[in-house]
């Protein structure tokens, strides 16, 4: 009834044989027919209905209408007709939500998957989790200690001497064997290992760690990826590992080694990112102090200590690790190199390394500024001491001449 009254007030005339249908949107009243769409540009003349949206299916439109004289409002207004195909494409296209931004890319430091909301996991899906517990491991003694506790060592190629492959019968799920990779750089990766055995191995590692990390940091900065074993080639797809069941055991161990190597780099980089964040936090007040013209309360020994911390981080990231170059192990193993590179790309390692190096460069410039500032203060202090000594010498000479 509301639409019929509105139509009569406007005085629109409908050709014979056509059924009018009204779509009341937010800004325009459109008239649809079975053959064409009639649109009148009446935004300046028609008041919006208080009802936000009226469904087409809920309207009961009569077939006969009384012809009325055309309203003077409609005289001289140009009418446009659109084909039904255009109308359907317009109605089906989703409307953009104002003020809603596109999703952002991944962050520089990705959050741990363990701390994300858990989703439904299939029974055939197993877990691969990586930790960085120390700066380095002493592998010879660690290997003997693990074997004495009932674990079995798996032989790796000679050019993979920086890692240990250890197997155990304590598998979390029966779909795959339990396997562990321990890297000299202080990282360990567990494949389908039950939680009880995982905690036991972490306790064993404490006796062979060189410069261990904090326990809270170890459990926070980790990487966890689900994996399955099935038909097809081994690959990384949608954030999960897909392992092939059509290869022998030795080749399967090497494929897991390639994935584990990339996960090892990611967790080590996360530890170094945390150290860099702590370093930045410790010097963030220096620029504001210099800006306000106040004295920087740092001694020369403290500045040299900060420079040492900075260069240690830069040495670990750019020289001691394999973050910048692909390890030599993959040069003659192209299939493993593809898996390694794909995993590094998924974990966003190259971009994170670039960001860390940019931060290190900025911190290096700030520490150089502090060192030059302290050097100038020391030179100024020496100049004043020389001036004071010359003044005292002049006073002695004057006193001799007078007395």
Structure in a nutshell:
The protein has ten helices and 14 strands. With 403 residues, it is of the alpha+beta class.
Layout of secondary structure:
Layout: H1 2-10, E1 21-24, E2 29-32, E3 37-39, E4 80-82, H2 84-92, E5 126-132, E6 134-137, H3 139-148, E7 152-154, E8 163-168, E9 178-183, E10 187-191, H4 195-205, E11 209-212, H5 215-220, E12 223-230, E13 235-237, E14 240-244, H6 249-283, H7 285-292, H8 300-320, H9 334-346, H10 349-402
Parallel strand pairs: 12-14
Antiparallel strand pairs: 1-2, 2-3, 3-4, 5-10, 5-12, 6-11, 7-8, 8-9, 9-10, 13-14
Helix pairs in contact: 6-8, 6-9, 6-10, 8-10
List the secondary-structure elements in sequence, H or E. Answer: HEEEEHEEHEEEEHEHEEEHHHHH
- What count of helical segments does DSSP give? 10
Spans where pLDDT lies below 50 across 5 or more residues? 12-83, 86-120
Q: Which percent bin holds the helix content?
A: 40-55%
The overall pLDDT average reads 75
Coarse structural class: alpha+beta
Radius of gyration: 37 Å
User: In what range is the share of β-strand residues?
Assistant: 15-25%
Strand line-up in the sheet with most strands:
7-8-9-10-5-12-14-13
| Total E-strand runs | 14
Apparent shape: elongated
- Largest sheet: number of strands, sense, barrel closure: 8 strands, mixed
* Distance linking N and C termini: 122 Å
């Amino acid at each position: 009834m509301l639409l019929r009254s509105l139509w009569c007030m406007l005085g629109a005339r409908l050709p014979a044989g056509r059924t009018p249908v009204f779509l009341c949107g937010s800004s325009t009243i459109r008239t649809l027919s079975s053959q064409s769409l009639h649109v009148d540009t009446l935004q300046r003349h028609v008041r919006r209905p208080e009802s936000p949206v009226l469904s087409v299916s809920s309207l009961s439109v009569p077939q006969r209408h009384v012809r009325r004289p055309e309203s003077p409002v409609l005289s001289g207004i140009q009418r446009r007709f659109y084909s039904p195909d255009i109308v359907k494409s317009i109605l089906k296209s989703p409307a953009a939500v104002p003020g809603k931004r596109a999703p952002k890319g991944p962050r520089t430091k990705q959050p741990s998957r363990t701390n994300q909301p858990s989703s439904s996991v299939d029974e055939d899906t197993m877990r691969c989790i990586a930790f960085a517990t120390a700066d380095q491991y002493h592998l010879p003694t660690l290997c003997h200690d693990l074997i004495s506790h009932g674990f079995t060592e798996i032989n790796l190629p000679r050019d993979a001497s920086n890692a240990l492959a250890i197997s155990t019968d304590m598998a979390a799920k029966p779909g795959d064997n339990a396997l562990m990779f321990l890297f000299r750089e202080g990282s360990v990766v567990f494949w389908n290992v039950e939680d009880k055995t995982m905690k036991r191995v972490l306790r064993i590692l404490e006796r062979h760690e060189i410069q261990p990390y904090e326990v809270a940091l170890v459990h926070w900065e980790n990487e966890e990826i689900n994996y399955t074993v099935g038909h097809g080639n081994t690959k990384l797809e949608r954030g999960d590992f897909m392992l092939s069941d059509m290869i022998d055991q030795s080749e399967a161990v090497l494929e897991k080694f390639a994935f584990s190597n990339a996960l090892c780099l990611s967790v080590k980089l996360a530890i170094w990112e945390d150290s860099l964040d702590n370093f930045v936090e410790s010097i963030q007040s220096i620029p504001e102090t210099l800006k306000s013209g106040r004295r920087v309360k740092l001694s020369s020994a403290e500045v040299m200590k900060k420079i040492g911390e900075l260069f240690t981080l830069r040495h670990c990231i750019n020289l001691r690790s394999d973050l910048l170059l692909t390890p030599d192990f993959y040069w003659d193993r192209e299939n493993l190199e593809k898996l390694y590179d794909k995993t590094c790309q998924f974990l966003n390692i190259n971009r994170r390394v670039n960001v860390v190096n940019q931060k290190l460069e900025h911190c290096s410039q700030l520490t150089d500024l502090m060192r030059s500032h302290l050097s100038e203060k020391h030179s100024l202090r020496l100049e004043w001491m020389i001036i004071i000594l010359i003044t005292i010498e002049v006073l002695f000479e004057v006193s001799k001449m007078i007395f």
